[in-house]
Amino acid sequence: MEFFLKVLDRERADEMALGEFESSKALMQYIPEAIVPPIAWGRYREDPTKAFYLTHFRYLHEQLPTSSQLLPIVQKLHQSSSSPTGKFGFHVTTFWGPPPMDNTWTDSWEEYYTRKFRSALEYGQIPHGRDEEMCELGEQFIQKVIPRLLRPFQTGGRNIKPTLCHGDLYDANIQIDSATNQPVLFDPCCFYGHHEMDLQSMRAARNAVGPAFVNAYKNEAGASEPQEDFDDRNALYSIRGDLETVGMWPQWRPLLQTVKDEMRRLLAKHPDGIDGFKEGPVVKHMTQARSSAAQICGQPMHSSLDSAYASASPLLTVAQAETRS
């Protein structure tokens, strides 16, 4: 029997190992055929700054599955899973690469996503310095676009079920098991949320699992109500992922302009925010979710995200290198 050992040597290494272990364990409940079973995680006794994640070893082909192979797995995960608390979040902190995800449980998807977006807005500016234009756009975005696209989920008699999301479903985290010739998903950073969030990295044409898969998923699984907002929601979720990518990989700095353009496009399309949503009664005030981006951009950047970026050295791994975590 062979094993795969991932060694983490960076700030909050133990939390990263725990997050991946708990994420993989959660995924095993619903799609065991596509997950390598986790075995253990822990800290190094002689060097507590290091941590490890242990799993079984699989020989993987560096090739992508077809949509007909991948789609049933993703659909099964989203349709069969449900939050143990009925809320959005996760029971431990998970990491989208270096940056931690605040998974505090909440009844509101708008609040949960706003929290993620606020963190990404800050993280994306760390390697390049404060961007006042981005700060201003971010403030408007939080006040207008996020409520307009997400609040209708849980108003006007509508609701969405928090389902388990892989969290980082993109090309580098999907390969083919050489023994079974079936897809294997790895490097998860799970949370219970809106299932369409798992399509966030697939909007970009730069990814092989891209827009064609998003369309196939929509056609097969359907879109949440309001269905007409599906593409705008996909853009919204993609913006958060792009901001994290820019913060993680400084060479992706040109992507910031794409992010700004998309934010302007959505702001122009939804200038009235939630007041522009006409279908059914709408709750127009939610204090927690409307925290302004000015709370980020109006303060010096010295949060834990700075140290997360500063310590983003490559992981020490056995058997293979990971891209994000």
TrEMBL record:
A Pfam family hit: Fructosamin_kin
Determine the domain of life of the protein's source: Eukaryota
Entry coiled-coil feature ranges: none
Matching entries from InterPro entries are given as:
Fructo-/Ketosamine-3-kinase, Kinase-like_dom_sf
What Gene3D superfamilies does the record point to?
3.90.1200.10
Chemical reaction(s) catalysed: N(6)-D-ribulosyl-L-lysyl-[protein] + ATP = N(6)-(3-O-phospho-D-ribulosyl)-L-lysyl-[protein] + ADP + H(+)
Q: What class of enzyme is it?
A: transferase
Q: What is its EC number?
A: 2.7.1.172
GO MF annotations in UniProt: protein-ribulosamine 3-kinase activity
Name-wise, this protein is protein-ribulosamine 3-kinase
